[in-house]
Amino acid sequence: MSLISKRIGLAALAVSGLVPAALAAPMPPKPPSAPAIRHVSHDFGTPVVDDYRWMEKPGSKRLATFMREQNAYTRKVLDAIPGKQALYEQIKQDANVGAAVFWVTRTAGKIFYMGLEPGQDTAHLFVLDKIGAKPRLLIDPMRFSTNHIPQALNFYFVSPNGKYVAFGVSGGGSEQAKLRVLDVATGKLLPIGITRVDGDNTDFPPVSWLPDSKGFIYYRLHKFGAGAPVTDFYQKSRDYLHLLSANDPTGARDKPVFGYGVARSAPMTLAQDALVMTVPNSKYALGVFTENEELQSVDAIYAAKVADLERGAPAWRKVAGRAAAITGFALHGATLDIISAHHAPRYKVIRYDVTAPGAPKTVVAPGRDVITSLAAGKDGLYVGAMRDGMGRIMRVGYRSGKTTKVKMPFQGGLGQIIADPQAPGVWFHLAGWTTPPAWYDFSPATGKVANTGLQKPPKVSFAGIESKEVKAVSWDGTMIPVSIIMKKGTRLDGRNPTLLIGYGSYGITITPYFDPTSLAWLDRGGILAVAHVRGGGWYGQAWHKAGQKQWKINTVFDFIAAGQYLVDHHYTSPAHLAGEGGSAGGITIGGAVAWRPDLFAAAIDSHGDTNALRMQFSPNGPPNEIEFGNVLKRRDFHWIYAMDAMAHIRTGVKYPAILAITGANDPRVEPWEVAKFAARMQAASTSGRPVLLRVSYQSGHGIGSTKDQYVRSLADQDAFLFWQLGVAGFQPDFGAGTPPKRMVVQPSHNQGHSAKTGT
């Protein structure tokens, strides 16, 4: 599981004035500090001080007490910020200006999609007989809730005949789903409930139906024993065949057909995950070995006949291996198209015949565009790409081999592209920083693109908002793309509250997206900026590799460079600049405040990997070796030490204000990582600025959180930042009769260089 989280925003309010610096009135009585118990290890000759190592002990009551007390204190502080409740109401309003439509599937003439309607708190599964018809609700995940614990639909997969939906629901942000099957016509559940099924509808699809719809193959984690090391949790996965005719509700008698220790012809390592994938128009199934549950990091692809798979006796034959540098693929009949980085830093598309494995032929040669996705339609292969973050689509005819470009409705971020192997054309999702999202339909017969109307435009206007694309110079001269979103006519006087967001891992790109909830920030004069740092995928594989492993520190320095650009060009100043990173972006924001504490007034660490040296010893540590390395190896240790924020926090430094956020059920970044970072910052900083720990006890990594959970968290974050960045109307008075003292922010030295963790 990669480490990933993403900020989305809300609301519209009047602009508040600014005060020169944040005011620090006396705070409520602080809870006890975390005990600092001396711990020094000497790793490959490097002394590593970790006085909060005790927090990692499983089931630590001391840690639980620390987190409860810190969270209670954080609630008192945040709830005392003037304007926060009004901010929450505005964000809540803008979170409901329109419907979200995602994970669209076209099967058997029907349209299935996940939808989050205005007023709904969790995304539901709907089905349409055709565009314009009334949607029918299939699954409300809250029907599976007990004690009002939030539930989320992790994945759904429709049988080729459109009669059944296999789906998984998990509670409290745990992402640990139970696989069930629904009869589409009746809405009734079949007697199936299989546990330990992990994945989603994007990077790691855990279920694949047999072409005849008589059953499916599913990915399942191994049964984790009580005495097993926690690092074994995501290892030894297998894929099992389940037939609907079998009287086996829990899958206890299901036979493994691919994965760890299953087939000698397809050996699997502990570092890999295994998937089996089928498509309706092919007699072949694919067996896929990935790393870190990512289809963008594929080690090998095997093929077997579906008929043999149905009998439970597939004969797997290797089609492509690690040398192909696979980051995506699509199957059509016996044709396997692969996105390859081999001698192609921005990728190319190569084609294999699964019936006669051999040297592939190039279908789309490498060029200026970064190839991102593939979709196999009945008529041709559709290739998703981007240039400078803006989406593009090409069509490659199966018979002619001719490549044509799809005319995009506007310049924006390309989301999911979907093709029905039994129908011509392609659907795609497109959105811009200031342009609402929509689903579009390309017809190869007419060559035209039309809005499907599947997603209605939200009732909100961004007419007063503009976006800019600029580039900042990083420490080594590399130009770092930065997207800036702000109100039209904003004065560049260095006084604008500005939030810089960065990630930078797994080759993931933050492409343009439309976010009504950001209006709460923008309408108060705030500026949003996104740093497209190395480690992401803005310029393809080479950009990713330049921020990975031994080059990971580039991610931190690129982020700092983007912040320095915003200061140097008078968008903001250090007194009004904040940074945010989540998940793997904890490396980015943690490193940025450690290296350049003078550049930021505040920072948000959201479920962040701020203790990379210890990530290895958590359940999600081994799966992330491909991205960060193995701390137990001498060579890897030194670059992981460099990217570890905890290792670079120094006592006696004036650090920015910190809001550290975690979920008690986070399966990707252990809550103790965030708690350790907060405790160390509280002990080390002499700035007088607050270091707060916010804990959600009914969520995890943010995946599967309800809309209200998101809205409340965003209101807390924005209110905290407005307070610390000096926005009038957000300055609390904690002590009656006690004059507040002014915070002094260190001036920028104009010399800094600029650093996500995937789950």
From TrEMBL:
This is prolyl oligopeptidase. Gene3D superfamilies: alpha/beta hydrolase (3.40.50.1820), Prolyl oligopeptidase, N-terminal domain (2.130.10.120). The keyword Protease applies. It is an enzyme of class 3 (hydrolase). The keyword Nucleotidyltransferase does not apply. Residues 747-759 have a biased composition (Polar residues). It catalyses: Hydrolysis of Pro-|-Xaa >> Ala-|-Xaa in oligopeptides. Residues 34-449 form the Peptidase S9A N-terminal domain. Residues 738-759 are annotated as: Disordered. Residues 1-24 form the signal peptide. It holds the Pfam family Peptidase_S9_N. Keywords: Hydrolase, Protease, Serine protease, Signal. Residues 514-726 form the Peptidase S9 prolyl oligopeptidase catalytic domain. Its EC number is 3.4.21.26.
